[in-house]
Amino acid sequence: MRLVNISDTERLSHKGSILFKELVEKHTNGIVKVEVFSNSSSGSAPEYTEQIKLRAVDMGLSTSGQLQLWVPEYEDIMIPFLFENYDHA
């Protein structure tokens, strides 16, 4: 399984990707292997979002800005001041 993101190795999203890899491999007794590609090594966010759509990679950490290209409903959560606070959301 290939997981891609644009984060450098110091960001929490990369560290979360590594934790995901460790947990998947642990709980599948190593049957499922996860390769993490960070630092935009698989391209920019638009490029790897397209790769996910084409099933060239399995997973990616993307933004709603990229996802709304294929799922227009994601635009709705990008409306400024849509929610008053976290509890309202």
Quick overview of this protein structure:
With 89 residues, the chain is an alpha/beta fold. The chain contains 3 helices and 3 strands. The protein has a 3-stranded parallel β-sheet with strand order 2-1-3, with helices on both faces.
Task: Give the helix proportion (percent range).
Answer: 25-40%
User: What is the CA-CA span between the terminal residues?
Assistant: 33 Å
- How many beta-strand segments? 3
Mean pLDDT: 85
Oligomer: single chain
Main sheet record: 3 strands, parallel
Count of helices? 3
How is the largest sheet built, in terms of strand order? 2-1-3
The secondary-structure element order is EHEHEH
Enumerate the spans where pLDDT stays under 50 for 5 or more consecutive residues.
none
| Helix/sheet category | alpha/beta
Percent of sequence in beta strands = 5-15%
Cα-based radius of gyration, to the nearest Å: 15 Å
Describe the structure.
The chain is α/β, with parallel strands linked by helices and 89 residues long. It has a domain at 2-62. Helices cover 33% and strands 9% of the residues. It contains three helices and three strands. It has helices spanning 12-27, 45-53, 64-67; strands at 2-4, 35-37, 59-60. A three-stranded parallel β-sheet has the order 2-1-3, with helices on both faces. The mean pLDDT is 85.
Write the topology of this structure.
Layout: E1 2-4, H1 12-27, E2 35-37, H2 45-53, E3 59-60, H3 64-67
Parallel strand pairs: 1-2, 1-3
